[in-house]
UniProtKB/TrEMBL annotation:
Record keywords, A-Z: Cell membrane, Membrane, Transmembrane, Transmembrane helix
Keyword Metal-binding in annotation: no
Organism listed in the record: Lasius niger
Domain Mechanosensitive ion channel transmembrane helices 2/3, chain residue ranges per copy: 566-607
Entry superkingdom: Eukaryota
Entry's Gene Ontology cellular component terms: plasma membrane
Protein name per its UniProtKB record: Small-conductance mechanosensitive channel
Family: Belongs to the MscS (TC 1.A.23) family.
Amino acid sequence: MNKTHQTLSDVLGLLKNSTNLSSFKLDELHKTLHETLDNIDSLVEQMESYDNSLSSLVQILGDKPVENEDSAITRQRKDVQQNQHNVRAALVEAKLYQMQAKQLDSFTTSLLDKLQHQILTKRTLSPLVPAFWQGVYKEKSLSTSLLKDSGGVNMTLLLFGGATFTFLLILFLSHQMGKTFPKIFRAWAKANIEINLNSPPNLSIITRVFSPHSPDSKAKKLEILEQEEKILLREELDAVPLGTLGQLFIAVICVFVSLSVWNLWVICIHAENYGLAQVINSCIPACALILGAGLPLLGWTRGMPRPISSFLMAISLVLASNLVGLLEREIIAPNFAAFMQGAIALLDAFSLSLLFRTKKAPRDFDHTQPIDESDLTGRQKFEAILNRRWSILHFLSSLILILTIIAIITGYMALAFVINTQLLVFVYDLALVCLFVGTWRQLSALGLSKGQPLVKKLQLVGFSKNRVDQMKVIGGALGTVFMCAVAIAIFVNGVHFSLIDLYIRLQKIFLGALFADIPISPKMLLSCLLTLTCTYYGIQLACLWLTSRLFPTTQLSTGAQSSIITILTYTTWISSGIFCLRLLGVSVSSVTWVVSALSVGVGFGLQSIVKDFVSGIMLLAERPIQPGDTIEVSGNSGEVRRIAMRATNIMLPDGTTMIVPNSQFITSAVKNSTFNANPNRMVITFDFPTTANLLKINQIILKVAGLQKDILVSPAPVILTTALYGPDVNFMLRFWYPSSGSSAKIKSAFLQALFEELKAAGEHENVIIKG
């Protein structure tokens, strides 16, 4: 609390002289107030929670002592009330600080907006006027602090010379690797074609990359290729760009080489402690990515970098980052700062204009007609599509260059610098994200393609082809979302390319914010999703182990096994849900409105659902019916297949499934033919004419029943006479079969065998089976 008071006092003292504050100083105060306000909000939340706990304790102990009360309780009440008084006093003080911090934050925000508006609309002398250059020359004496920060004129020249040499070296290295790697890659692909023609089973990943068909169909196609077709295929390989994966590989090598060369140069000239060296060092990785991966957007898509554009973009980012650092430290004179802003803005605009220049489409190519794939090669089609797509961007970048020149001539150099620098950072940001997203998708497609080791291992643990495809799609989406967060962090940082600042921005993005007292963030959501996924596959593995390893060693019935698996599944899901709520930091107060709505719903629409749920728990615990039992409920007879928490599935004799709410088994009468492991009983009725040989037919029926493996010998099948009417006699066959058997299959097998026996004995016309 004292630290908060001191911070607010210091900020208030600085804001009293706000006319002397620069925009960068105001921005620092704004960030300080934000951090202080976050700390106060957290402190107020903790105090309110503590005050609620003390209030609950006071309600339990009572506000006033009663007769014959224990002295320990009286003493405890006084201590609690005193603590509650202190907490409430501190809470009032914290809320006052909270209100003051919000007012200061609002005031700082308005000042910052006004100052930034003034800076952007500030007009200096035009560079075409001699007075502008006279002002720059007169400020030569004010450049002492600037030269001191850079180490003097000689050290400044050495640092910029070292940076230029590093960039040229990386440019040359990336250019050589950009020419060498595709040659190696395509030579490998061509050699692979010859290998595949001689030995089709040994197909490498190259054939899967260049062919959308399966390896088998590709092998068959390669087997029937003639020499001319192989030459055409090699020519197509020559037109294939290296791709984002290869470009990123080159860029990463360039980043490490550039950092090594630059740090070695800084150590040799003893410039570790100078501000200019530190600024350039923070920009080296970003610039090496530009030089190594090729020109952003266009070059990274085509795999054909433009060295001049890449070099100018890298130099522009370094100069802009260095100028912003000098302005933040207020060690640069105003006129010289305006001159630097105009020069860097012009360089940025020229870099952007050069960036979006595209080659012309192939000759005799009509832009108004759709592309005919038979007339153009792959590279020509690609260039034509890009020419159509990027022509508008080329026009806009040229327009920005013209407007920048006009703004510099008229004296609006700060406005030109800010706009062009932000555009340059945005283009770099977008290109970097496209590079990483493309690389991630290529890795996902290659790593999760058919026949890869990872896919084989996933299939061994039970992942189907659809699951692997889902993982590929979801993995690509998650990578895209993450790179969007990186893009936001880079764009917000502007020309500050420090990895530490980028990490802090990403941390703030993924920590999220409070929503209804619940911290919602990508990190929390990803943790919950991972928990639920692990729960799903963990339950599957546990059920597989129980059914294949543990249950065969026990004497548990099928119903008991099903009950154990069902209870285990629901218990695990409930525990996983509670764990996810704890990950989100959900407290009882956060879900009070949910509980209230649920209680109202139970009284109306959810009452039957809760009743069925409780009935399902009772069925699983008491087990009056089990999977495999033959039961009769509501006039329908069938076999119990599955008992869930809300309903039970019953397979009827005609093959259909009847879904019965669990509450019906509790509130109504249910006939269970196999209760307590009793075998199932089946009854089949027959009609015989009185002229038939009844004794012979009965013997045939009993013989056939005895030969059926699914009909029990004990109790033995019996035939009973049930009715005599006119010329016919009605008989009933009663037999028993195991509770795990299928009544429909057993009856079908018995009747087929009986028909064959009766037909062989010549009695099949004297028997009428009623069912």
